Amino acid sequence: MKLFIRNTCVRFIYTNDNTNRLHIRAILCHTYHLALHDYYNQARDLILMIFIQHTIYLADISTQILYNRTMVQLGLCVFRFGNIDGAHQILIN
To answer: Would the pTM of this model clear 0.85, i.e. be above it?
Structure first.
C-alpha cells in the first residue's frame, strides 16, 4: 500500500509540476528512498537521468542539502553491497 501511495504521489508531481523545483526534489526523495532500500541501480539511473550534478549549486539551500543527503545514502547503498571503490567515487563527487 505504501509503495502504491509513493508511486502515485511521485507520478503526480512528475506530470503536474510547472516550477521544476518540486520535480527535482521529488526525484531526490525518490532516489533517497530507493538507495535506502538497496535498489542501487534504479537509484543511480534516476539521479543520472536529471543531470543535477552540474547545476545543483544554482538550487536553493534546502534542495542542496537534500541532494547531499541523497548522494550519501547512495554511497552507503553501494558500500552495503561491498563495493568500496564505488562508494568512494560517489562520495567524492
So the answer is: no
Residue 73 in contact with residue 36, Cβ under 8 Å? yes
d(CA 53, CA 86): 17
Q: Which ranges of 50-92 would DSSP assign to H, the alpha helix?
A: 61-80, 84-92
Closest CA to 66 of 17, 25, 11, 10: 25
Cα–Cα distances (Å) from 3 to 10, 12, 64, 65, in that order, read 10, 14, 26, 25
Rounded to whole angstroms, the Cα distance separating 66 from 61 reads 9
79/90 Cα distance (integer angstroms): 10
What ranges do the domains of the chain cover?
Answer: 2-92
The owner of cell 505504501 is 2
pLDDT digits 0-9 by tens, 55-80 = 888 889 999 999 999 999 999 999 99
Whose CA is closest to 53, among 12, 13, 92? 92
